[in-house]
TrEMBL record:
UniProt keyword list: Iron, Iron-sulfur, Metal-binding, Molybdenum, Oxidoreductase
One family name in Pfam for this protein: Molybdop_Fe4S4
PANTHER family linked to this entry: OXIDOREDUCTASE YYAE-RELATED (PTHR43742:SF6), TRIMETHYLAMINE-N-OXIDE REDUCTASE (PTHR43742)
SMART domains in alphabetical order: Molybdop_Fe4S4
PROSITE patterns reported for this sequence: 4FE4S_MOW_BIS_MGD, MOLYBDOPTERIN_PROK_3
Iron recorded as keyword: yes
Name of the protein: Putative anaerobic dehydrogenase
């Protein structure tokens, strides 16, 4: 697709029924839709769903959809296997044995509604709505639906991604970016133009730093990795900051295999080089920024030799990267999860937003585009919060994370404070957990064994999921079957464009999240839920704020007319960013704040600095002597979305086991061969994965996968959920500046071979479930 114009003109639009949302193709009904979740992803690509007699038979990418150009990842291509999977939950069920025994009795939805509503009303009346915690997972297609149920239906202020300490995903990048430039920014890979790469105004970035992110695999946060591949075909050069040799590192001008958790030092060092060598954009800095002098003074504290020492990177490579980035026009930074999964999180986000600022790469073609949500419809995780009475809202379990918790995008309670409250009953008792779209024990729970003990103290736990997860088996009192993407009518509204998702099939008694929200909402608080069905809810959502002109069926039938990207560049010069219509950025000073006032308001240092990881060669040398490897975790893979898809044969054929990646020298030093099972241990516990050897990794570092459980082991052993779980080693309540960030990608460990019958007599799952966890101080 190097010549995109040629590609566009080559598409047979008639063949793909341009302008139609549904048609007949032989024996198939074809529906033009978007797949969001379940199965999960952060994006929502255009799909053509082929059904016959109400059954989904085939899925193809929609070639007319400029968002994904007909391309699909293996997870969407494999949708039929997921939708048809026999392990799916078919009916609501209530627990009849002890918790964890996996004894269930089928009940009807009416019984489930009655039972659950009775519990909710009981706890509300006796302990207040705040005694009920609403839990969801990462941004699947639940990001306004479940908050609406929790805020307006239950009216609890305690909504959370449970046990996921330090808001350690995405949110800090959103609020940090907002503090600096008033908005969120993404790499401008032309997505705001329906004609994409052929657009006359657009330009490919000359250089992109792919930083702590692997967008080909993760496609996270409104950005598809293949857009960047397309840019590379048009000349974009890559700098990769990653301890692993990723696809990007292998094609980079400069690969910086950084010591995990030291990225802030690198970013500040680059700022220093760029300012010292006078490579910054004087015009932009003078006219549009605030705080340059202070920033310039701070970054002087990070000369390149010091940064080289902290990061373990050669000084020349750091200089080369800084110069290449600063001299490229335009340039951009594709940042990722490694930003939050380290203690320096808020400083790192700031330093990198400053790098964009001083080089003048903000809101220019091929730079970092300032983005908002389609049609300014901005209700997401705060949806329905106006229905929570103020005196109840004031009881939200907040921690130190002021900037994050008080922002209007994700007004979540602090999961560490919830964890403590579950354990201690303070500041007030928590009684009920409503878990919908999270397999907490397998994936988000930092210190998973501790999380299990805390959950056991809850009186009533509901889990709503498409599958019977280990979390459901371990602690649920009732489980509800959730419909998958092709089984729900829905709306995708996160950045742009606004997209509709159509229901084309039904699995037993599973219900989509919208249906579940409406059914419970109208029973729990009818005033806030004057809806008959899912489509009523969607119509309300689409028109409650913002300026979307139609209803839900308009959206699904005329999706192609609703490509509402705000394609303007340099919006700050045009008075398009501020409510007062003045020129400038949507910040208190109207400037791009290199030293943001918001940080000061949140009681954070408004200038970036480096914090050493809480454990490592520098902070804890004695521990390092015994645990000499740095453990980073969670690098994404094509086959899985977090803990999902472990039951799908196709995925397991490609990726049968959890893999721990290590340098051959590390393997040799520890007597480990390719493909052998390896214990990964710290003083807090251990887990096992299979060795994958490659010279493409910083030899100080090993990388373990996250989210593993083993459906094939069956529910009796809770699917072996702790056996390969790196979150036996991670900790809750260890967070960075302002209570934000968590060192999930920079811990210490040692490794040794699993020897059958010798050192594997007790599995981690048995250790946690039967013996009460790992013994540690
Ligand atoms: N297929 C798939 N896609 C997903 C997900 C999934 O589970 N599967 N999860 C979704 C979610 S919720 C998220 S948050 C995103 C995350 O997606 P990404 O941002 O891509 O996150 P990761 O793959 O965890 O890590 C990115 C890279 O950071 C590197 N890394 C590790 N430690 C460090 C460090 O200290 N510094 C630097 N600079 N790099 C480091 C890793 O080697 C890895 O290549 O993906 C989303 N998309
Ligand atoms: N060690 C380590 N741990 C990590 C990470 C890491 O990098 N390293 N990454 C962390 C990150 S960034 C995140 S965001 C968390 C993610 O943690 P979670 O988002 O909680 O992910 P899962 O545990 O996979 O749980 C999601 C569940 O939702 C179900 N589901 C999927 N789609 C839908 C839907 O549309 N509706 C409903 N109701 N259910 C659905 C799935 O079947 C699955 O059981 O994990 C974190 N855990
Ligand atoms: S990015 Fe991949 S998994 Fe996500 S919706 Fe698109 S094709 Fe599906
Ligand atoms: Mo995430």
């Amino acid at each position: 697709m190097a010549d995109y114009k040629e590609y566009l003109s080559g598409i047979n639009r008639e063949l793909y029924h341009e302008g139609e949302w549904q048609w007949q193709e032989g024996e198939y009904t074809v529906t033009r839709s978007h797949q969001y979740t379940a199965p999960g992803c952060h994006n929502s690509c255009g799909v053509l769903l082929y059904t016959k007699d109400g059954k989904l038979e085939k899925v193809e990418g929609d070639p007319l959809n400029p968002f994904n150009n007909g391309k699909l990842c293996m997870r969407c291509l494999n949708l039929v296997e997921a939708v048809d999977h026999p392990d799916r939950l078919k009916y609501p069920m209530k627990r009849v044995g002890e918790r964890g025994e996996n004894k269930w009795q089928r009940i009807s939805w009416d019984e489930a509604y009655a039972m659950i509503c009775e519990k909710v009303n009981y706890y509300k009346k006796n302990f207040g709505p705040e005694s009920i915690v609403g839990v969801h997972g990462t941004g699947r297609n639940i990001n306004w639906q479940l908050p609406m149920l929790f805020n307006a239906g239950i009216q609890t202020p305690n909504i959370s991604t449970l046990f996921f300490s330090g808001f350690a995903c995405y949110l800090p990048r959103i609020v940090g970016s907002t503090a600096v430039n008033g908005d969120f920014m993404i790499v401008d890979a032309s997505v705001q133009h329906p004609d994409r790469y052929a657009n006359a105004e657009w330009q490919a970035p000359e250089c992109v730093i792919v930083w702590g992110n692997d967008p080909l695999k993760s496609n996270a946060d409104g950005f598809l990795g293949h857009w960047l591949v397309q840019c590379m075909q048009m000349g974009t050069k890559i700098i990769s900051v990653d301890p692993r040799l990723t696809w990007w590192s292998a094609r980079a001008e400069v690969w910086l295999p950084i010591r995990p958790g030291t990225d802030a030092a690198l970013a500040i060092g680059m700022l220093n080089i760029i300012i010292e060598e006078d490579l910054y954009d004087h015009d932009f800095v003078e006219n549009w920024t605030y705080g340059f002098e202070e920033l310039a003074a701070r970054v002087k504290e990070y000369p390149v030799a010091k940064v080289a020492e902290i990061t373990g990177l050669p000084a020349e490579k750091i200089q080369k990267a800084a110069r290449l980035f600063a001299q490229a026009k335009p340039a951009a930074i594709q940042w990722g999860l490694a930003f939050e999964q380290q203690i320096s999180c808020m400083s790192l986000v700031l330093a990198v937003a400053d790098l964009i600022g001083i080089t003048g790469n903000i809101d220019v073609p091929g730079g970092m585009l300032l983005v908002r949500h389609a049609f300014n419809a901005h209700r997401h995780y705060n949806c329905g919060s106006e229905f929570t009475p103020p005196e109840v809202a004031a009881k939200k379990l907040n921690g130190a994370a002021k900037g994050v918790a008080e922002n209007s995008i994700v007004p979540h309670a602090d999961s560490d404070v919830i964890l403590r409250a579950m354990e201690t009953g303070k500041p007030y008792p928590l009684k009920m957990l409503w878990v919908q779209s999270s397999n907490s024990l397998a994936c988000p729970a930092m210190d998973a064994p501790r999380a299990l003990e805390a959950m056991k103290k809850m009186e009533f736990i509901l889990v709503a999921d498409p599958f019977l997860t280990p979390t459901a088996v371990a602690v649920a009192d009732i489980v509800l079957p959730v419909g998958m993407g092709p089984e729900r009518n829905s709306v995708r509204n996160w950045w742009t464009p606004m997209r509709a998702q159509s229901k084309v099939c039904q699995y037993y008694e599973a219900k989509g999240d919208e249906e579940i929200v409406v059914e419970f909402g109208k029973r729990l608080n009818p005033e806030a839920f004057p809806f008959e069905n899912d489509v009523d809810l969607l119509n309300w959502y689409l028109t409650m704020d913002g300026d979307y002109p139609g209803n839900w069926s308009d959206l699904r039938e005329k999706t192609w007319e609703y490509w509402d990207w705000d394609a303007a560049y340099r919006k700050y010069e045009k008075g398009m960013l501020r409510e007062d219509g003045e020129m400038g950025f949507n910040t208190p000073t109207g400037k791009l704040e290199l030293a943001p006032l918001m940080y000061m308001q949140w009681e954070l240092d408004p200038l970036p600095f480096h914090i050493e990881p809480p454990e490592g060669p520098v902070t804890t040398p004695e521990l390092y002597a015994e645990y000499p490897l740095i453990l980073t975790t969670g690098a994404r893979s094509y086959e899985f979305f977090h803990s999902e898809h472990r039951q799908l044969p196709t995925m397991r054929e490609f990726h049968p086991d959890p893999l721990v990646t290590m340098h051959p020298e590390v393997a040799a030093a520890n007597g480990i061969k390719e493909g052998e099972w390896v214990w990964i241990e710290s003083p807090r516990g251990r887990f096992k994965q299979k060795a994958y050897l490659t010279p493409g990794i910083n030899p100080q570092v090993i990388n373990a996968e996250h989210g593993w459980w083993f459906p094939e082991q069956g529910p009796e052993n809770w699917f072996g959920v702790f056996d390969s779980n790196p979150n036996n080693l991670t900790r809750a309540e260890v967070t960075g500046q302002g209570g934000i960030g968590s060192p999930i990608k920079s811990m210490l460990c040692k490794i040794y071979k699993v020897e059958e019958g010798v050192n594997d007599l007790i599995s981690p799952t048995e250790q946690v479930v039967k013996l009460g966890g790992f013994k540690h101080g």
